[in-house]
Amino acid sequence: MSAPASVAGAAALAFTHRFVPATDPAAPPLLLLHGTGGDENDLLPIGRMLAPGAALLSPRGKVSEGGMPRFFRRLAEGVFDEQDVVRRANELADFIAEARAAYGLPAPVAVGFSNGANIAAALLMLRPEALSGAILLRAMVPLAAPPAGTLPGTPVLILSGAADPIVPRGNAERLADELTRRGGQVEHKVLSGGHGLTPADVAAARAWFQANTPRPAA
């Protein structure tokens, strides 16, 4: 499927997407992954707030749930089609490699919200080489029994909502434990609020990004 034009034009790759080139080539690129019903435009403002000047790569999920884009199928609220999770995570990892070659990018830091955070967590478990780090906003465990793997030092931030009606706190804690067990440098914070994002999420994510994604030496 051909991608639509973006701020600077987007190559015809496997996912419809937006690509905004870097104005600061030393800033790590961001992979922006929207939630259910979002699209490739949703997280661009957050990406700019987190990392001004970074390249932004923002694909649209290929799965449709009642006309709402998603990155993988679910059987019910909080119940995932795990076979589809595996398939779609591999498909997304292949797209990331394709986009890196097309746009000349290093491995990106994923910034995912809800369904986008869950597919990013699946990437960390199934295709960890695709990402250099991840900010998971309202994430859940995507796979009940993921295959063995390692995340040697990969920085990960998980931000949960204390009153989130969709993501049980224990579920997010299990995700943090699993990624830590694989060797990730995981920080899990529970913020006031529900499933929706707040200014506190943006502030915490920005501070973490600045502290955990060192810029290459000049």
Number of helices: 5
Q: At the fourth CATH level, what is the homologous superfamily?
A: Alpha/Beta hydrolase fold, catalytic domain
Structural class: alpha/beta
| Number of E strands | 11
Element order: H for helix, E for strand: EEHEEEEEHEHEEHEH
- The overall pLDDT, averaged over residues, is 92
Task: Give the quaternary arrangement of the chains.
Answer: single chain
Strand order of the largest sheet: 1-3-2-8-9-10-11
What's the structural domain tally?
1
Shape: globular
Distance between the termini: 38 Å
Percent range for helical residues?
25-40%
Q: Provide the CATH architecture.
A: 3-Layer(aba) Sandwich
**How would you characterize the largest beta sheet?**
7 strands, mixed
Low-confidence parts, pLDDT < 50 over ≥5 residues?
1-8
Q: Write down the CATH topology.
A: Rossmann fold
